[in-house]
Specification:
globular; disordered N terminus; 3-stranded antiparallel sheet; T-fold; 9 helices; alpha+beta; 343 residues; 8-stranded antiparallel sheet
């Protein structure tokens, strides 16, 4: 009898406990925008029980991205930091002691250099700097815009071998053995940094750094995917060519409309073909969908400088998907790209 009474009491406690339980606070959608990272707009979107909780997470992500930004900067010095600019400034000299994050990035750059047969070459800074300077001058003074001198491009192209980048993992140093070689990690650094941050961030965030978009997991409120827009190269009547569903992974687009200048009525963009040393002429834009944001960044650059067949071979190697847009606006999909299309 006593056992039966105890059982009934326990059952009553369980029922009452269930009725009196307090439901978890609802999560609301929040956004944070920063303008100081990688010289572009950074947006973080997520859900949290309060704005304060979300802002704390967003600020932590900002601070971590800022560290990557300073380490990978090729233009500015920072007190107490040996960054990519430091390495370039010491080209032809002694090895430079650097943070492990720089070592890891350059190891990844070397892997992509070899995997793409030099289509993604972060040791091509001597060539890219000529285009960078000409583009900035042309934007500042459009009436006198001009192309880099062909002789200067050819001379710079003689000093673009990644073999000149000596990575000593044990010593924690980087050395450029050719005094004319310069690193430019712009084709990889943003995506690589975003991927490292995403791996350490809570699930259910959407992180966008200058169009390098990475989802750390589906929306936590209903486990639905995020929707990411693919910008139209012409930005005419429709802002987006497509919207894509992404639960976890990255969407990265490279295009001739993002950074360019005009010379004699001709558009010259920033993605340089390593064969010609001039802006690649295959595509208007290339969009990559894959799990790794650093890889997506590199692949979008590589495919922009390749024909579709060679680009597809590279996609197959990394289990990635792509959409190409040609000069006439035609859209070409890799076999699995349509699986991500929402509209």
């Amino acid at each position: 009898m006593k056992t039966r009474v105890i059982a009934l009491v326990l059952a009553a406690i369980m029922v009452l406990g269930g009725c009196s339980s307090v439901s978890a606070p609802e999560q609301e959608r929040y956004e944070a925008t920063f303008m100081t990272l990688f010289d572009t707009v950074t947006k973080i979107v997520g859900y949290a029980e309060s704005e304060e909780a979300f802002q704390a997470t967003a600020q932590e992500i900002h601070d971590e991205l800022l560290e990557y930004h300073q380490l990978y900067d090729i233009y500015k010095d920072y007190d107490g930091i040996n960054n990519i600019k430091t390495i370039n400034d010491c080209a032809g000299g002694e090895p430079v002691a650097v943070d492990q994050k720089v070592i890891d990035l350059l190891l990844f750059c070397r892997e992509l250099y070899e995997a793409t047969d030099g289509r993604v070459n972060t040791a091509m800074g001597s060539v890219l700097s000529l285009w960078h300077d000409a583009r900035n001058a042309g934007i500042d003074d459009p009436e006198n815009s001009a192309l880099p001198e062909a002789d200067a491009l050819n001379k710079a192209a003689e000093h673009t071998g990644f073999e000149a980048i000596v990575i000593d993992e044990k010593a924690g140093t980087i050395q450029i053995t050719d005094p004319e070689v310069r690193l430019d990690v712009g084709a990889i650094a943003k995506g690589y940094a975003v991927q490292r941050i995403a791996e350490a961030s809570p699930s259910g965030l959407l992180i966008s750094v200058g169009g390098n978009v990475c989802a750390t997991g589906p929306k936590p409120v209903d486990e639905s995917p995020w929707v990411v827009g693919v910008e139209s190269p012409d930005k005419g009547a429709e802002e987006y060519l497509h919207t894509l569903y992404v639960e976890k992974g990255s969407v990265v687009t490279s295009g001739d409309y993002q950074r360019y200048y005009m010379v004699d009525g001709v558009r010259y963009h920033h993605i340089i073909d390593p064969d010609t040393k001039y802006p690649a002429a295959y595509w208007r834009s290339v969009t990559i969908v894959c799990e790794d944001s650093g890889l997506a960044d590199a692949l979008s650059t590589a495919l922009f400088t390749l024909n579709q067949s060679d680009g597809q071979a590279l996609l197959d190697r990394y289990h990635a998907e792509a959409m190409w847009v040609d000069a006439d606006g035609n859209q070409i999909y890799s076999p699995g790209f349509s699986n991500f299309i929402r509209t």
